[in-house]
Amino acid sequence: MLVIKDLVKQYGHGEAVLKGLNLSVEGNTVVSIVGASGAGKSTMLRCINRLVEPTSGSITLNGTELVNLKGGELRRARRKIGMVFQGFNLLDRLTVMENVLAGRLGYVNLFQAISRRYPQADIDRAFYLMERVGIAHYANKRADELSGGERQRVGVVRALMQDPEVLLADEPTASLDPRTSEQIMMLLQSLAAELSLPVLINIHNVAQAKTYTERVVGLRHGKMIFDGAPVDFNKEALEAIYGGIEAPDEELAPPPPKEASHGVS
C-alpha cells in the first residue's frame, strides 16, 4: 500500500507546488492523476520516488517511510518504485535487452553492472516480459531504431524488471500517436491486474483516464479537488479542476473502442 499524508512541496520562498496532499492506493488499483499544466501532477510522482525532495509530509510504501531515507536505504527503497517516463529515458546506443536489464542495476554488484553480466534469472525474466509486451523480437536492436510506442514498451519492461511494489507513469502517452497511446494505456491496465501492482499515471487525456483507470484524482494548484470513480468524474469535476478552460480530450469525445493488441505503429 502507498500512503501519502500531508505532502507539501515548496521551491524556495514561492507558493507551494503541493499543498497538503493525502492519498492512499492499494492492491492492483490503476489511478490516473489529472489536472492542468502546473497543477503538481509530475511533482507528486517525483516526490514519491524522491527525484524531488518533499518539503514536508509523509510517504509510506508497504510500511517503509520514504521521506527521510538516505544513502543505501534510499537506493534500496527506490528499487521498489518503478518509473515510466514521458521521454522514455533510454540509452539509444544500447540494445533493447541492455536497456531492459538496466532495471536490475539496483540488484547487481558493480562488476556485473559495468561488464553487463547479469544473472541468467534476470535475462530469462527480461525475455519473458519483453515477450509479454510484444518486443522480444527487438532484443538485439538498438533503442534508437524503435518507434515511440516500442520505446515506451521498453521503458515499461525496464521498470517492471525492478520487481516494483508500485509503478509510476509520468505522461507515458504524451509523445505517442492516439492509437499507440491507447495501446500503452491498455498495457498498463492489464499489467496492473496480472502483477497485482498499484499504478499511478499522470495523464492529460481525460477520456483515457476515464476509460483505462479505476480511480481518478484531480489536482488544481497543488490541491486535490477530486478523488473518485471515473463514472463520477462529471462536468462539475472538470470545471473544478480545469477552472473553465477546456480539458484535453475530455469526455465529450468518446475514446475509440478497446482492442487487444501488442502491435505498435
TrEMBL record:
What subcellular locations does the record give?
Answer: Cell inner membrane
The family database entries (InterPro entries) matched by this protein are listed as: AAA+_ATPase, ABC_transporter-like_ATP-bd, ABC_transporter-like_CS, ABC_transpr_PhnC, MetN_ABC_transporter-like, P-loop_NTPase
Q: How does it sit in the membrane?
A: Peripheral membrane protein
A molecular function (GO) held by this record is:
ATP binding
Enumerate the UniProt keywords alphabetically: ATP-binding, Cell membrane, Membrane, Nucleotide-binding, Translocase, Transport
Per UniProt, residues of the ABC transporter domain are 2-246
Q: Which residues form a coiled coil?
A: none
**What protein is this chain from?**
Phosphonate ABC transporter ATP-binding protein
* Species annotation: Vreelandella malpeensis
Lineage of origin: Bacteria, Pseudomonadati, Pseudomonadota, Gammaproteobacteria, Oceanospirillales
